[in-house]
Amino acid sequence: MESRPAAEGLRERRLVGPSGSSVESSAGAPRPASRGTPRPLHPQVIAAEIEDVLNLLLVFRFINSLCVRTFFQPDEYFQALEPAWSIAFGSNSGAWLTWEWQHQLRSSLHPALFGLAYKVVDGLMTTLNLIPLRATVLVALPGALQSVFAGLGDFYTWKLAMDIYGRESNAPWAAWCCSTRTFSNSLETSLTIAALCYWPWELLNDAKASKVAPLQQRGRVISLRISLVLAAIAVLLRPTNLLIWLVVLGLSLTRLGLVGKSPLDMATMTVLLREIVVCGAAVLAVSLVSDRLYFGFWTFPPYKWLYFNMVQSLAVFYGRMPWHFYLSQGVPLLTTTFLPFVLVGLYKGVSSLKGSSTLQTNIIRTLTFAALATIAVFSLISHKEIRFIYPLLPVLHILAAPYIASFFTTSPAFPEAPPSVSSSSQSDTVTLRRKLTLAYILSLNLLLAGYLTLFHQPASLSVVTFLRTDFERLHPDSLSLPGDNNQAAAAATATSQPPDQQQQQQPHELFALFLTPCHSTPWRSHLVYPALRARALTCEPPLHTAPGSAARAAYLDEADRFYLRDDQGSGPWPGPGYGVRFLAEEMWPATKDGKRAGGKEEGAAEEVPRYIVGFEGIEPVLTAFFDGPGKGMGVRLRRVWSAWNGPFNEDWRRRGRLVVWDTGIYPGSYRGTEEAEAEAEETRGRERVIDEL
């Protein structure tokens, strides 16, 4: 019997039928050969088909990553790219390491992938003397790398659906999904679905279905090891991922809610336990060494994560959601137009699956229980975000896939008859139906994807591009990175973090002050140059307070203090209701003689930024301050850049256009669009006067 090439996937599907001929199985259930059964494809044809699918998905996700022009959520940058930048270019690179990294709550494995990519690509571009393109390439690099993970996530989603429903089914083609954003949840999702794809699902089969023990088949132990390694990495990245694997492993051992008799014997359970311990210990050792190299001492981030979030209850500092958040918002927003099919898939998963094999039933039921259990446990946690259940999205798509396919095609995606019935009774031709409904659904999904990719908060990315390119214009001799030939100069000009703790000796001005809600834009991964000094409002949690204490309840971070409303107009500072007090008492407090720190009179003009960045709603705040308490600072605000940031935003502080104001303190100011147009109109006016004369 000819062996199947490695590209075929998880396990041998070529089984021997009653007549001795080789036939295909669906999810491990043999289909007896019959006159109407199509002849199996040659292994090389199958391998080529799978390779083509993978290449197509990788190309599609790469193009997808290049099209992303919007800001979604701060963790995309601050929990991945900022520590990665620090790994690649060192502590003098100006990376902003948030409190989670200062207290070792995160594993270094995820940013290490991007850090290595930064280092390799930067070294290659330096060797090839492509320095002028370096900033552009480094900014685009993380998305390109994440597109590989996203493409693999799509591929393994399709592959697992093919293993469950069979190659002849249309269901696998309805199961793709993943993300090109650099969240740890995105990598967790790809790792999880790949691990599920390599998991030896024969552990769920009926003992009567095969005379060979599940892990005695050729290549199954290797497949198990791959699955366990990928799962262990996912758990170290996000400890909550353990919930999925507790369900999968628990049902494999106990068979609660499953059908058939367990095929696990003592030898199989010994092998399973051995591989769990060995693979888990190996991944844990690599993680400990990585964290030791990154943090400089031995630490275990999953423990720190549990301590700060569970014992210290710091997660609620970032918001509390009702218990039904994932049911009423999370799953609907995650699945969008495919929600009805997902609900049907979940319902069918816990009920009887008519006509499916024992193994197929048990796999679907296990995936269903894993999804439901994860959502139930996450619903008990006060702080909730949709991305926390993102690893369930491939599973939900797989569960919904047969009902999507059968709803829109004439060829049944989920067999309504037992597998032993000849497939000759089924149509070999797939015909689309309900085409108008399908067109509406696809169009709506394309519109949503296009909006989130191109139109929802695009200014948060374009503003840092403006600042970076203007810095290149003003300071062309200060565009080095740590590790360049002038490393000493780069180290001397670096900005340490947090951003409000700047070094005292800096060759350049404070280039930008961000008076926005904290983490409203990317940071060094897009600003790039260490010499580009910037300062932003921070939002560190109250680590110094006890849970439930009055001090914690009254705590306000820096961004909260800036946006603290004073609608009654009380206090000495006039203004639009917020902001002026913060600027007058914290940002630029008055000295004993009444002068403002950072003013020209104090000889510290560098602490007044060249540019102030904020949403247009703060313009009255700035005007009230610089015309009032800060009048002596010599600031003359002028808009030099602004951009539309989407049609709406749920946060009132982020509504409106994002604006850059020039303070007028430094020479070489940027000639904004409005100024250029006004100057051009004035020139045209003079020319008309001359013509008339």
TrEMBL record:
Function recorded in the entry: Mannosyltransferase involved in glycosylphosphatidylinositol-anchor biosynthesis. Transfers the third mannose to Man2-GlcN-acyl-PI during GPI precursor assembly.
Stretches that traverse the bilayer: 221-237, 271-290, 331-350, 362-381, 388-408, 437-455
Protein name, UniProt field: Mannosyltransferase
Organism: Thermothielavioides terrestris (strain ATCC 38088 / NRRL 8126)
PANTHER family for this protein: GLYCOSYLTRANSFERASE (PTHR22760), GPI MANNOSYLTRANSFERASE 3 (PTHR22760:SF4)
Domain of life from the UniProt record: Eukaryota
Residue span of region Disordered: 1-40, 478-506, 672-693
EC number: 2.4.1.-
UniProt similarity note: Belongs to the glycosyltransferase 22 family. PIGB subfamily.
InterPro entries: GPI_mannosylTrfase (IPR005599)
Membrane topology annotation: Multi-pass membrane protein
Main subcellular localisation: endoplasmic reticulum
Composition bias type Basic and acidic residues, residue spans: 1-15, 681-693
Compositionally biased tracts (Low complexity): 487-506
Top EC category: transferase
Pfam families reported for this sequence: Glyco_transf_22
GO BP term (any one): GPI anchor biosynthetic process
Cellular component aspect of the GO annotation: endoplasmic reticulum membrane
GO molecular function: alpha-1,2-mannosyltransferase activity
Assigned keywords, A-Z: Endoplasmic reticulum, Glycosyltransferase, GPI-anchor biosynthesis, Membrane, Transferase, Transmembrane, Transmembrane helix
